Structure formats: C-alpha cells, structure tokens
Amino acid sequence: MSEQTNLDAIRAHIATFGRGDIAGIQQQCTEDVIWSPPMSNGRIAYNRPWQGRDGVGEYCRLLMGTFEWQAFDVPLLLAQDDHVVILGKETFTVKATGKKIDNTFLALFRMRDGLIAEFTLCENTELVAAAIAGVAA
What we know:
With 137 residues, this protein is an alpha+beta fold. It is built from 4 helices and 6 strands, in the order ααββαββββα. It has a 6-stranded mixed beta sheet with strand order 2-1-6-5-4-3. The radius of gyration is 14 Å and the shape is globular. The termini are far apart.
C-alpha cells in the first residue's frame, strides 16, 4: 500500500478510537495484529502485550474503562514504506481516582494491506500509573 493509503488508514483509526468504537478498531487490524503498549510492572492493567483482534478488543475495553478523555490531538503523522508514526497529545481523567493527566505519546504502526499489523506505544507510564493509583507522579 502507498504511504498516503497508510496515513489515511491511521487517520480513520484515530477517528474510530475517538468514537470509542471497539469493534471498528478491531476491524482496522489484521487478524494476527501485535499490540504492544509500554510495560508497567503490572501497575497498569492494560499495559502488557496483546495479540489478535480479540486481544486488541480487550485492551481497548480496559483502556476506555479506565479513562475519560477531555482532549485528543495528533499534531504529527509521518509515513514511510509500511510504517506510520504519530505524535499525540491527550488530556484524560482516571475514572476511579478523578486524577487528570496531560499526556504526550508516540505511537508506531506497521501496516499490511491497509490494516494495522503492529502497534507500539511509548508514553510516560510513571505519570499514568501514579494517576491510576491516585497519587502525584
């Protein structure tokens, strides 16, 4: 697929995520997708490796059940060959603790036939884990 096709697919993915459409997110992935959020030594329930569309669905249910987003912006999208990199900024509140987070993240997608085959997320897990625990980072 072309770099523009991959960029368009990730833009659609971002919009689907913004709607909270978990089934839609799953359909935007290959059946054997590898989903890799950063590790957090068990402090963040969804931060572990996931595989397949069912794994992505469970990840999304845990993630969306944990946070309520106030803002989500992706000011930078770059594509080269079958990779798309995004820089994102988000503001969300931890539902259980009421802690608000301003977070910047970097995500790398590897695409195959217009679908997400691999996802790797980089973010400040200390900030997120502290907010989930209800303490300051």
